[in-house]
Amino acid sequence: MTTNTSDAVEPDPDESDEADQVFEEIDNRRSLTGIPLIAVAVVGILFSSFQLWLGARGFVFEFTIPGFGVVEIASLASLQIRAIHVNFALVMAFLLFPGSMGSGAVTRRIGALPAAVRNRVGDSPVTRVAEAVRGAVWWAFVDEESTRITPSDLVLILLSTFPTIYYVTQYDEITDVIRVRGLGGAGTLGEVVPRLAALELGFLADYSLAYLMGVLAILLVLEATRRALGLLLTLLVSLFLLYAKYGYLLPRDLPVARTFATSQLRWNQIVQNLWYTVEGILGVPVGVSVRFIYIFILFGAFLEMSGAGKWFIDLAYSITGTRKGGPAKASVVASGFMGMLSGSSVANTVTTGALTIPLMKRSGYSPEFSGAVESSVSSGGQILPPVMGAAAFLIVEYTGTPFRDVVIAATLPAIAFFFGMWVMVHFEAAKRGIGGLERSELLDMGPHMRRGWFYLVPLALLLHYLVIARLSVGRAGWLTIVATVALIAMVAAYNERTGTYLVGGIAAGYALFAVSLFYAGRTPVGMLYGAEPVDLGVTAALGAAAAALPTVVTAISLAFLLADPSGDAPLLDLDDDVVGAATWFDERTGLEIAGSRAGQFGAFVLKAMDSGAKTATIVVVAVAAAGVIPGVIGITGLGGSLRALIISVSGGSLVLLLILAGLAAVIVGMGMPTTVMYIIIVVLLGPVLPEFGIAILAVHLFVLYLGLMADVTPPVMVAAYAAAGIAKSDPFDTGKQAFLLSLNKILVPFAFVFSPGILLLRTTDGQGSILTGADVGDLGFFLPEVAAPILAVFAGVYALGVAIIGYYHTDVRSGSRVSLVAAAVLLSVPGMVLLPASAALGLAGVDVALYSVTNELIARGVGAAMLVGGLIRNRRRAGRESADPEPVEESSDVAAQ
What we know:
Layout: H1 13-27, H2 34-57, E1 60-65, E2 69-75, H3 78-96, H4 105-121, H5 125-141, H6 151-169, H7 171-181, H8 189-192, H9 203-206, H10 209-229, H11 231-246, H12 255-260, H13 267-275, H14 284-305, H15 308-320, H16 326-342, H17 345-363, H18 367-380, H19 391-399, H20 403-432, H21 445-452, H22 456-468, H23 473-493, H24 499-520, H25 524-528, H26 538-547, H27 549-563, H28 576-589, H29 597-626, H30 628-636, H31 638-650, H32 654-669, H33 674-685, H34 696-708, H35 718-727, H36 731-741, H37 744-754, E3 761-764, E4 767-770, H38 773-777, H39 779-805, H40 814-828, H41 831-843, H42 853-883, H43 885-896
Helix pairs in contact: 1-17, 1-35, 2-3, 2-14, 2-29, 3-6, 3-10, 3-29, 4-5, 6-10, 10-11, 10-13, 10-29, 11-30, 14-19, 14-23, 14-29, 15-16, 15-21, 16-17, 16-18, 16-20, 17-18, 17-35, 18-20, 18-35, 18-36, 20-37, 20-39, 22-23, 23-27, 23-29, 24-26, 24-27, 28-29, 29-33, 31-32, 32-33, 32-34, 33-34, ...
């Protein structure tokens, strides 16, 4: 089996190991082996299988047995599906993340107890009791090496199934009793499960089973959050829970406290709202995860495990590697692609950084700058269509905007950000005299494309399903996964000897399906299962057969694989994790899965399902925990009070409100997943910004962009820390440079809030809609409000890039850098200048409205003149310096000193 990765751009094994160590330190996952590792894989595959069924068949679990009929297992409601979804994530979290590593406040004291007792009483029975207590606690709860599953984990896994079992088996009580009479009207343990009536003692007799299951579910979500996402989010969610119960105690005679005071609520009201309605844990975020997020995370896992990640990185180097500063430019392209799929700034930084950061350092970039570039573009991957990580699907749900429109609106701003990154790495390379790699060190574009062009097919299909066919997001994700599996099956089965027969077999299968549909109204598979015939014309039959093509391709390719499982597969180049998993399995079973193309294909499918589940676990736990916050805000009525407070603090100023919203997004996003940050900020600030006439889609994208800044903003800057670990650079300096390189994530969202034309939106009365042909034809609107802002924001990004790097043919002086920053603001966001200027004139007694389309054009013109003038001055100065070598030498000596 051949590979499509050049040795010249292969990561150094030591660098890859360090990247893995960095990720483990940040991610805090267990390193399991043996039976625990298999158990995690089995649960993960079951989780993914459950989600794939939902994507294919919906909430009805039934199948057809030929000659027997339909067997229905269950038909579940949305809340039941969400409870199962969360339950899978809880089980995975308790398996993957240790509850304690012995470094906590309680375990440290227990660990020190035997020594303390021995110092006091010597070697006595009391000391042995203390040692026994310590040993029992360590055995039951502590996983010091993060390598084993403890008994307490198994207990939590068992407990996590109880609320879900209640949801699935007692849904009639939830809908008919709890929603009418509350949790107090629900049955106790003995009433719900008569066989367990003897256990009704203490609190089991005092409270309804539904209440106990709700409390247990909330506590388990908090514990999973602590393990997977850290103490910060757990404390924040717990604070909201305490506020829901005790917020009524806030004094109403104090101005600020009065704003947050609530009416008194009982615990059973809070628990009912948070677990038995769509307002809390099982609310919109988890619903989006069930329908959209998981299926796209799984699609990303299938694409990555297929080897597409390696191929795209190599493609990026083939395209950009020979250019000035080529390795950094390749990082911009490759990390953007990988971040789009992974939806995690840290995971993307570690995955692609293991390759890109060492190459950037080797080419001449400083370690700090190399790490800064990688972390900045990795965090920016989540704004790149068409996948955009997980937050895009939350935008779809919260705004009611079709995913197609979100993708269209987000495209130009994302391109502007990556253009700005390209500009900065280019001028840094020019500043340091960094060239590109030799063409001999890189793959030839032609052979590389021929070996992996098929990796582009899933992305093209995804865009087709979403933008052209306009399928639902979940359906598009499912169909793309099926197509990806079929594609890799065909690649695994293809070689020079079988290629002609394989293609011929697929063509024959397609023809058989088309003929069967035309003449019998059913596919051959449909005939087997007794499907009802449908009258179809030639065109409809061909289209229906095309829809079944992935099934045909997979079936025929599997037949070839089973007929010759160990044949050559020259195009198959699966991810190293797939090969490693297959090799690990072979070493323990004596089989030869890794050396068989059929075995590799099977390992690819299972590893992708396992990897997708592990990635999704953190997201599902995060959105479940975050669901508590809107649930508390809804039941306490806090939303209206916050809205009034925010408007009051901002003084009705849009500029100040946007700045406050941006700061809130950055602060809340520090150390938290993007999805959690987005949910919190949108719930708190989302209802306020549209009152200023801002399109709702622009508001949500604004929050997403600013929240992503938290991943590279000191002091938390998790992505920058990960990059610094790989680059062996100073973490704070890396974070500082990453923050500066990411300033486009501030400039661009402010630009499209003031000029929604950048999002290809036309706003009328605060409602934005994607541009139509008529809008483009309306030149009086299109030129000043769409074309001009788009050109200006790219020019502004360029100006900001030059200012940040401080180089354009020669070093840019301080005054010129300030001028370029001003030019960037005037070009991109003239409203940030015009609105405060109007307010200042108003305070001086001059009532004039400066913020208008005409004045925006004038301001952009001034910014353009400042940019062009500054660049010309610097270029002329560079020419004078090159004509007089001695000042350059002196300057160089000074710089060297």
